[in-house]
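EI: anyone free to look at a 123-residue chain?
SC: sure, send it
EI:
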Amino acid sequence: MPRKQRRAITARATSPYCRPVRVFAVLSAGLIGYSLARLLPAESLDAYGWRFALLVGVLVVPIGLLIRKRSARALGKSCGAGSSRTGGTVALAGVLRGLMNSCAGTIAGYGLTYLATYGPGHA
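SC: here you go
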């Protein structure tokens, strides 16, 4: 990756707005979980209540896409401007790499957590 591009990515990741947004996300997730636990009985929360928290999390995606679209428009960039075939391939490779990393972490977590249940001495 070229040095200039690395600097741009680092600058975006250390934006002064990143920390407050992360704090807001954690606080709102905790508030949603606490509210659901207080409002719903344990049986209802286990049966269908967790879906409400998932729905709130899914609703963030269209909002993020809308913000991204408006910010690109404000900067004077169109969606297809400056993109090349190799840029799309690099982006797809990054997405696949991230997906594989996420899957590996999830599988390792489940393996370490639940595999001990089926080990010797637990039968």
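EI: Residues 14-77 form one domain.
SC: 👍
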